[in-house]
């Protein structure tokens, strides 16, 4: 990296992992004056050509220093807003962070969460809020996590697209420090969690994916024969509506 240049990676987490169409709007404030704002799109994965996501969320990359939109970060405050499309929706509040105290050359990271003003410089700054769940033998793409509180199913948790076996459970919003965790498929409703997490276990845990038996009705519903039958039924219904029974 050239002298005087830095790269700031901005990690943005949305609660429901609905990242499509979301981008960042950035501008700087220096000596009481605001610079022109601009859109920053997520990084693109070179292999899949799709937006890149790490286990925390969507990732954006901002050049800082010589030749960038922020050539002199010292004394500049970076302001960040997340928006969907052409301001069809906006994630408030705005966030701000002093660039001079953050950027020291090389690569730096910051982490922001949907609907929250705080800006963190490390996942460790969140304490035990985010629990990394490593799922062994996950196999099927239909599997995800279900969390439980007081014995009842509370929330579904889905992985980042590039890390199908790594899930991030946000413990905020639960009334209890004990959170049950299970691997589930699209149809299973487990009676009890496979793992009961408490803060003393740390923020990195592992769980094994059980084997789920595919129901005969599922196979029939998705079979080419059944799809053909449905198509013929639709055609017959249209004809009957036109010519009558």
UniProtKB/TrEMBL annotation:
<dbReference type="GO" id="GO:0030246">
    <property type="term" value="F:carbohydrate binding"/>
</dbReference>
<feature type="domain" description="Pullulanase carbohydrate-binding module 41">
    <location>
        <begin position="7"/>
        <end position="121"/>
    </location>
</feature>
<comment type="similarity">
    <text>Belongs to the glycosyl hydrolase 13 family.</text>
</comment>
<dbReference type="InterPro" id="IPR013784">
    <property type="entry name" value="Carb-bd-like_fold"/>
</dbReference>
<dbReference type="GO" id="GO:0016798">
    <property type="term" value="F:hydrolase activity, acting on glycosyl bonds"/>
</dbReference>
<protein>
    <recommendedName>
        <fullName>Pullulanase carbohydrate-binding module 41 domain-containing protein</fullName>
    </recommendedName>
</protein>
<keyword id="KW-0732">Signal</keyword>
<dbReference type="Pfam" id="PF03714">
    <property type="entry name" value="PUD"/>
</dbReference>
<dbReference type="GO" id="GO:0005975">
    <property type="term" value="P:carbohydrate metabolic process"/>
</dbReference>
<dbReference type="InterPro" id="IPR005323">
    <property type="entry name" value="CBM41_pullulanase"/>
</dbReference>
<keyword id="KW-0378">Hydrolase</keyword>
<keyword id="KW-0326">Glycosidase</keyword>
